[in-house]
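ok so i was messing around last nite and threw this chain in just to see what happens. nothing serious, just curious
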Amino acid sequence: MAFKTSSQIRQEFLDFFGAKNHAIVSSSPVVPADDPTLLFTNAGMNQFKPLFLGEQKTLSFEGKEWMRAANTQKCIRVSGKHNDLEEVGHDTYHHTLFEMLGNWSFGDYFKEEAIAWAWELLVDRWELDPSRLYATVFGGDQEDGLEVDQEAIDLWKSHTNIDHAHILKCGKKDNFWEMGETGPCGPCSEIHIDLRSDQERAELDGASLVNKDDPRVMEIWNLVFIQFNRLKSGELQTLPAKHVDTGMGFERICAVMQAKTSNYDSDVFSPLIQAISNRAGIRYGDDEYTDIAVRVIADHIRAVAFSVADGASPSNDGRGYVVRRILRRAIRYAWDRLGIKEPFLFELVQVLGQQFSEVFPELVAQQAYIEKVVHSEEKSFIRTLGQGIALFEQMTEHSEVLTGEDAFKLHDTYGFPIDLTQLMAREKGLRVDVAGFDERMNEQKTRARAAGAFSVDHNEKGQWSWVAGKETQSEFVGYDELRISTSIIAYREVEDTFHLLLEKNPFYAEGGGQVSDKGLLKQLLKPANHNNETDQEFAVIDVQKSPYGSVLVVQQLPALDQPVEATVNRVSREFTCANHSATHLLQAALITVLGPHVAQKGSLVNQDYLRFDFTHFEAMTKQQLLDVQALVNEKIRAGIPLEEDREIPIEQAKERGARMLFGEKYGDKVRVITFDSDYSMELCGGTHVQNTGEIGFFKIVHESSVAAGIRRIEALTAFGAEQWVTEQESKLQTVANLLGTSNEFAESIERLQADKKELERKVEVLVQAKAIASQQALMNTAEQLDNGIKWVCGHIESFDMDTIKNMGYSILNESPKMTVSTVFTHDEDSGKVFILATVTEDLIQTGLKAGAIVGKLGRIIGGGGGGQPSLATAGGSKPEAIPEAITAAKSMLTD
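result:
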């Protein structure tokens, strides 16, 4: 078997299936673009789900329709049944991120071709030893009423020269694949390779080690035959079209073909391994303790870099938190096992970019951004890592169990993900009270929800009273109507307010970052014994969601048997609409200017302003802010009409490319808001302008940091932006009046700054001259002590600490041997005292040190200090103690 590089192996796989009429498609991102329920792409088949589910019949690619495809897919597995995180680095073949080589048939070829081609590539093309290969097949399942997959067994025997004794029947656990609890499924046939020595193989049959997690006998290719559909009842239904889904671990096959016993020894990892080893100053392979750290870091930086490139940046929830956990694990391994206590992982991104530039060009295109993200996260965690490790050691010094409270403190205060704390505990033979930790986390989440919660739980005090005697749903009509005549269908009293449900309701309930509408309910009432009707108004002070629809909060209860006129405050609604639509335009502009990593992390929309939180790992530059603002205003001036699609299937929205929030739970039917389908298309339940021109003007007024990796923009639109501009003009006019100029601000300010700088220079010259004079006076009054030490001592006028230190260096330079200085000064306004001490080198050799002198004198003046043996300083707050300190200084030199 000839040696092949990983690049050659990957390309030969793709060329092999390309020659067999497969579309060679690109890897999809590790962040699924149209599936907010899936953390990461974890298999090559993810992008082909619509074909397996029957939603598509063929694959549209490069202007043709295909029924076959092949590719190399970036995959990340860090959760659920595929969570290999704990094994990464400790063994030789588990990874968080890996490439999966795969070929697929969408109702075209089936078992015969899949088995024959797999053998052809492995044995005929790549020259793997067939005596080392095993094929597992589905051995049947009584519960599902499935027989042994005899068809696969027969095909292995007839279409390959595999040793028939190497065809093994296995159970449902290993050889029956299912997409989920329901949906497409089917038997599979796995190819395993025995990498043991000839002697080991002679002593023990490899069949006994298949599927036993032995790194020497491992799976390299899985051929899945999708021929059933699992119904909700659990019954299996035969599919009319049968599919093939195969997956081969790229890192594993590279190690096999390069005759390596570890994936990390192949050229897939060697550039990273070498870079990490060089940085740590070690030789990989000398010490398993450090080797584990090197492997973990090499694996983890791959997962992090590809995630960030595809839009998943470190954060505190969802995918982002998984990325943060992985990166912080790597940082801790570098700190604890390699002794690297400063950011360096970001330097490895360049290594990855060079290695994968041809197959995954996004790494090169996003290299600068990935480096910034990783560097920022490293700096942030390293600031607390040392303290957290020290606290962990203290917490576990006399205990075999780390309490949930302590684990929570490490998480909440020092940023330690719970799995990192568990890892550290395992290394010490300890365990973590995870249940206690989860309890504390849930308490925190409960407090957070309660802080801003409005409860409409019908089990609370104040049961709903239904006017017509039966429960019904309130209908929201506020997208189209701001004023309607309706009736009250239910009410309840809660403390000093009343909650109402209207038959038809025009008021928007708080949600999706948008505040609720305000307005009035009005009734025409005819009091008893009076002929005149009177209007009675009820202010709507809040609107919130409930299982029955929107709940209106009022302070008085209207008459239940009379209709009500419900009127939304039109001005407030219009300003809020402008801000909400501007938020959509803003998010699209941020993605355009900053990159696809931008994702919404929070928002607030009301009538006064908008606030938008998003993923980004550094402060935006002034130019970036101007570019974003200009792009939003360009879209406003374009007068783009609103395209609103209500109650469309969520799958249809996904196909259109509508942006959705990860982790958000959507129903089967959704509402899509579009302002130019090529610019902004989002799932949204809020209220919007009918045309972007109604927004008027957009002005960013503030950009700041909310948390690590999260930035916030606050902006104004319409009347709010107009008011802001007016206020700025007023401030500028005030400045102009103070400067005595009409519009030459820059010139006037530059003159003032130049004058100030010149005055500061002159003051500095005077201060230095004064300091030199004070120093000379000190030197002239130096006292020669009986022991031969020349003592320069005095209480001089107040100088800042930098000037005092410079004076000390000057005294040292001018001093002969055996000279000590102790200089005192104090600020009369603040009462602070400063001490300077210097000691010449010859006296330092006798044990006399400036740091020891100021240490003692600092305590006398009510403070402390320290420094180098030749020069040290101290500060205190007792100027009245200076004479005592001078006496003590002399005693230290003469005793």
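not much to say yet. The chain has a mean pLDDT of 89.
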